[in-house]
Amino acid sequence: MAKLADMDESVALAALTPTKLSFADVLEALEAEDIPESHRQNVKEKNERILGMCLGVTCHWSKGATISSATRSRPSITSLLCRFAQQELPGFEFSSIQVNKDYKAAMHVDKNNLGPSFILGLGDYSGGWLWLDDGSKVGRVKNIRNRWFKFDGRKPHCVTPFSGRRYTLVFFTYSNPKMATALSAKEERYLQQLGFPLPKEVLCHSAPKLSRELLPAVWQVPRARRVFERFEDEVERRGGLGRMPQPVQVGQKRLHAMLEPSMPLQMLCRALQEHENDPNAEASTAVHAHSGANGGLFVGSLRLLKSDSIKQLSLGRRLLKARRLA
Q: Which key words are in the record (predicted)?
């Protein structure tokens, strides 16, 4: 086993690579890695084999905070990901990086996460959106492919189905309400050499005895599963996620919506005009009467139903744009 004081030459090589890293550069580096099997039971479906690793600080069953074995055996990719995060997220401190490959995480909370986390999806895939329980009726969903997104890892979340090669990177700070979170001075120096912008919660001289007082909301997971089922039903009822829109201007009127190709733009103008005259008028009253079986008005990727109204959807006109499906 490598000693903490021994810095692999690959760390120096990583430091000498070009200063600006692209998403493609990081994806290429991930593809070159042999991602090990993960034993995180809380994110697995039954009998599923999943690939993933935690780089940086992780939890040891007896001592608490420690450096993961994947970090010691993979200093080059660890250093590269730290540099990438500091390039993309200046000022954001983190102690740990969760790397996931090609698996759909089940509903879970991150037990050893202080909370604030940034996630990024990379690869040639479709689907794989991040769903979060935000307390609403159907939760919140976010497309993270080539997009950074900040969320609270202690709250229930999961991944929608996907196809293709999919990596996710999650940058966060280790915490544990039952065990020590402080690293040793030697461990701290080693991680800082790799490029981790360590927060005070894990530093040897400033970490509190407990980094937080409460456990993550594991008890919320069963409820979140029920909310996610409602979300899936609603998405299916409205035609599915992920349509690719193209912006188009409709006179002086703007609406954050997408139109099926079979619907004339004049129908949207007429709907907007009726809404202008009567703030309580239902958008679908004008649209539904003129759209055929294959037509319809959409908000984002979701089809507007006859019961929906512009007022109900709380659409701010200054931020709105009409779109037509390709």
A: Kinase, Transferase
